[in-house]
Amino acid sequence: MRVGVSNDNYPEKRTIIVDADVEYVNFKNKNIYSYINLLNMKFLKKDKIFLFRPLVGSQKKNIDVFHVFNEIAITDRKWVATFETELPRILPPKNGSKEDNRAKLQRLSSALTANNCLALIALSGAAYKMEMKLFNDSPELSRVLRDKMVVMHPPQKLYMTERPARNAADPVHFVFIGKDFYRKGGGEIVQAFGELLAANAIQPEQIKVTLIGDLEKTNNYAFGPYQDDPAFARETEATIARYDLFEHHSAMPNDKVMQLLQKADVGLLPTWAETYGFSVLEMQSCGCPVITTNVRALPEINPQEAGWLISHPLNDDCDYAITSLQERDALRRKTVDRMKNIIEDIVRHPEQIHDKANAAIARIQSEHNVEAYQARLKKLYSK
């Protein structure tokens, strides 16, 4: 089977380019919107257009199906789309809302209902919910989309089939991975550990904390106009420098990260915003249970038996609504306090790590099985 893809970036490799028995043909340089987006984004300072349209004459006759990510395919060939937020994906205008895109949404929806659109794969239940909400004022369109939609969480390779019991004498090793250090909750992690240490609630010899992320990434898109004062980043870096138990890396090769996770005890992702949470799957596949917040897909992939969930009220898009500095600070305080309680409980009762670690491995084996995912894709392609 030959499947045409519009790119081979990380999302495609995690959700589409997943089967060695399938030949994938990359149409990135044969997609007219690759060039339109280059012009729009680089020179005209416009937003990306999430469309795929093969250049005339570029569609080889033996391409069986196109499979795109977050895009709509404008083609007369069979196609499938995987999406993490909603389709059509149209970024709202600055200082505007999604309702300003209503005309564009209606215009592009015809491609979704066409017979050659075989399936719409929601990456999570949260994405499914958002897609149905997008067209809740169009009952007939919603019915057609519902018939085409399936929820398929991405596949994940297992790195161990059983987590051995940890040495009780070793410090509990926590690991955070997030290039966007502050958006993914790195600042709150450092604050939580710092406050616990300052209050003598835990001792430095009881823990080890590895932080992998860019400390220069201070902007947090979840905050919108309510960004942190530079003092927050300065205090975060000062706390890291104050305690030897923190080990910070700006970046680390993925193979080294996976080796680290197989030795660590607990993963950390108290993120402010996340479209999915692939790093949670990677941690779980290494038998490393994770502390996360509850945005988007995280409650689906981090159930209580396999990890720890910090829950706050969500808006209709399964996100946190930050509408003031006070709201930002109040939510941060709640996240830090909840994280402190979880960390202190883990340090006092580290035996829970083993049970959650093996539950995490079991859920990856059953919910993110690579072979089962490949089989489901082939079935959709053959419609």
> What structural class do the secondary elements suggest?
alpha/beta
Strand adjacency order, main sheet: 2-1-4-6-7-8
Q: Provide the CATH top-level class of the largest domain.
A: Alpha Beta
| pLDDT averaged over residues | 95
Note the overall shape: globular
Number of strands: 14
In terms of quaternary structure, the protein is single chain
| Uncertain ranges | none
Spell out the helices and strands N to C. Answer: EHEHEEEEHEHHEEHEHEHEHEHEHHH
Supply the CATH architecture of the largest domain.
Answer: 3-Layer(aba) Sandwich
Report the C-alpha radius of gyration, rounded.
22 Å
Structure annotation, total helices:
13
Cα distance spanning the termini: 14 Å
Give the tally of structural domains. Answer: 2
Helix % is 25-40%
Largest sheet: 6 strands, parallel
GO molecular function, one term: glycosyltransferase activity
Protein name: Glycosyltransferase family 4 protein
Pfam families: Glycos_transf_1
InterPro entries: Glyco_trans_1 (IPR001296)
3D structure, described in words:
- There is one protein chain.
- The protein is an alpha/beta fold.
- The chain folds into two domains: 2-155 and 369-381, no CATH class; 172-367, 3-Layer(aba) Sandwich (Rossmann fold).
- The protein is 39% helix and 16% strand.
- The protein is built from 13 helices and 14 strands.
- The protein has helices spanning 10-15, 32-43, 102-113, 125-134, 139-148, 186-198, 230-242, 254-261, 278-285, 298-301, 325-348, 351-367, 370-381; strands at 2-5, 23-26, 51-52, 65-69, 72-73, 79-83, 117-122, 149-151, 172-180, 207-214, 246-249, 266-269, 290-293, 308-310.
- The strands form three sheets. The protein has a six-stranded parallel β-sheet with strand order 2-1-4-6-7-8.
- Strand 13 (290-293), helix 10 (298-301) and strand 14 (308-310) form a beta-alpha-beta unit.
- Helix 6 crosses helix 11.
- The longest helix has 24 residues, at 325-348.
- The two termini are 14 Å apart.
- The model has no long low-confidence stretch (mean pLDDT 95).
